Amino acid sequence: MSDVVKPVLFYVVIFLANIMQAITGFAGTVLAMPFSIILVGSETARTVLNLLGIAASIGVVAVNFRKIRRKEVLKICLVMLVGMAIGYVIVAFVPVSKQILYYVLAAFVLVFTVIGIYTTFFQKEKPEKNASVLSEILLFALLVVAGIVHGMFVCGGPLLVLYATKKLKERDEFRATLSMSWIVLNTTNLLHDVFTGKFVFGDVTHTLTVLGISLAVLIVAILVGNAVAKKLNKKAFLLVTYILMAISAISLILNAVGII
């Protein structure tokens, strides 16, 4: 693949992934990362995608600020930040196989995607009951695990979505609340990488050029994604979310086995 084609494909990936990010409030980085590593290298990909993820979330929040569930943002961030701290410690002191974790995470996400599709589209609707103590404990544990995974490998999004689909029923609340949470969580990851020396800008001129073009592409993607999101009803929105979860899981598996 030529040096001219690779950057063009990278911006196409950025555009498509961030349309999905704007529609659902997640998955942009997970979807884009495997392909971006191939096209521009891991160093540039991780730097640019992390910054774009924060910028994309700011874009969604700016448009849907009144829809943010602040109590849920506070709960998500506090619990996941504890999990992320655990993840940082594990990475620093325990040899962990990224491949094994990706397989487990992908299997977990795929199972819950199937369950979500079944309960949303095939199971007869039942009157909602108050959540049991056990289900609340399980959801709390899910947030902790999402934080650990996010701290270790910056891919806790699918697990957070499993939590959010149970807690955030309205489409714009879902998008805005998740996006506000990502601003806090991804900024924390960025600061951690900076202070621990993991954030390397590499060829500054090249990275800044890629970042500048990517930001322009991102703005267009957010505008398109927000326009598409307004056209989706609840079931269509959930279907897109579940499809993205499945794609995220498959991307993790393909990345773990070295295919992408």
Please tag this protein with its features:
260 residues; mainly alpha; 10 helices
Give an overview of the whole structure:
There is one protein chain. By secondary structure, the chain is mainly α. It has one domain (5-255). It is 81% helix and 0% strand. It has 10 helices and no strands. It has helices at 5-24, 28-40, 42-63, 70-93, 98-121, 133-153, 157-167, 171-195, 204-231, 234-256. Helix 3 packs parallel to helix 9 (204-231). The protein is globular, with a radius of gyration of 18 Å.
Percentage of residues in DSSP E strands: under 5%
Whole-number tally of structural domains: 1
Count of helix runs: 10
Contiguous uncertain segments of 5+ residues: none
Number of strands: 0
Q: What class, by secondary structure content?
A: mainly alpha
Helix content: over 70%
Oligomeric state, counting identical vs distinct chains: single chain
Please outline what is shown here.
The chain is built from ten helices and no strands. The chain is mainly α. The longest helix is centred in the last third of the chain and has 28 residues.
Q: Secondary structure elements and their pairing?
A:
Blueprint (H helix, E strand, L loop, with lengths): L4 H20 L3 H13 L1 H22 L6 H24 L4 H24 L11 H21 L3 H11 L3 H25 L8 H28 L2 H23 L4
Helix pairs in contact: 1-2, 1-3, 1-9, 2-3, 3-8, 3-9, 4-6, 4-8, 5-10, 6-7
